[in-house]
Amino acid sequence: MLAQLENQFHDLYLEYFHKAEAHRRWNVLNDVPWADITTTPNEEIARVVQTFMAVEMYLPDYTSKIMHLVRSSRGRAWFQANWGYEESKHSLVLELWITKSGARSVDQIRAFQDDILSREWNLHYETPLEMIIYTTFQEFATSVNYRGLRRVAMQQSADPALDKALTLLARDETGHFEFFKNGVKLFMDVDRDRVLEALNKVIHTFRMPAQTLIPDFGAHGKLLKELGIFDDRIFLRDVVRPVLKALGVQSEELREARHRLGAA
Questions:
Q1: In terms of C-beta density within 10 A (0-12 exposed, 13-18 middle, 19 or more buried), how is residue 71 classed?
Q2: Is-contact 161 100, C-beta < 8 A?
Q3: CA dist., res. 28 & res. 43, Å (int)
Q4: How far apart are CA 63 and CA 119, in angstroms?
Q5: Packing angle between helix 192-205 and helix 251-263, nearest 10 degrees?
Q6: Cβ distance 13 to 179 under 8 Å?
Q7: pLDDT per residue over 178-201, tens digit each?
Q8: Average pLDDT for 146-171
Q9: Residues 101/39, Cβ–Cβ less than 8 Å
Q10: What is the DSSP string of 190-226?
């Protein structure tokens, strides 16, 4: 059964990789209209972009620690390497927008990055199953964040460069979500009850990386809420419910699994 599961993960990765190569690869310098960038950016938008860039800056921790957790699985480990490449472009394109728009100087961004990298991100969960469930929600939530920021940015500044960058990022995050979601489904085919129990745990302990990594996140979280980009209500409505629907999980199943956990 384990060998079959790993073969399925490898097939899932190959499908993901070839689709990305054919339809979703993009170039940081050539596929964003930098010549049309708005050089008087809205400060609130700049703060959110900087917050999202900060989260992307923990790429070394994300890739190395998750890679170590799944290194025995070729499909999952190879995906993680590919994921790291794609996420590195996210950090780069956000940094370019911040500096090219004049929202922050290069020196300011470098000092900010040094401060960010002085801290370390750690795995939120200890098992591959819990982590793939966590990343399923996290990647979907990140795509919601980028789409929300794009909506607000277009209302306030209509910057073509930022609009295209956020469109590309949201599309990538949706692609990542699809891989993780399909991976969770593979686990469900093996032991649905175990996955449902893990889903309960992750949903009730979920925290976005920014909430645990960004200094003084309270102010950033308040801004995200005020702009209508992300908060607990949006997480439940626009993340948890759609993800559970995509997984084919009913609320009754979750309640039954929660009762089993309570009785254990």
A1: exposed
A2: yes
A3: 23
A4: 16
A5: 90
A6: yes
A7: 999 999 999 999 999 999 999 999
A8: 94
A9: yes
A10: H-HHHHHHHHHHHHHH---HHHHHSTTHHHHHHHHHH
Cα–Cα dist 205/210, whole Å: 15
**3-state SS, residue 141:** helix
- 0.90 exceeded by pTM: yes
Name the architecture of domain 2-263. Orthogonal Bundle (1.10)
The single-letter code of the amino acid at 189 is D
Residues 128/2, Cβ–Cβ less than 8 Å: no
CA dihedral 62, 29, 160, 208 (to 10 degrees): 0
- From CA 131, how far away is CA 113, in angstroms rounded? 26
For the segment 3-32, what is each residue's pLDDT rounded down to a tens digit? 889 999 999 999 999 999 999 999 999 999
N-term to C-term CA, the chain: 26
Between CA 264 and CA 259 the distance in angstroms is: 9
Look at the block and give the residue holding tokens 């899932």. 12
User: What single letter denotes the amino acid at residue 210?
Assistant: A
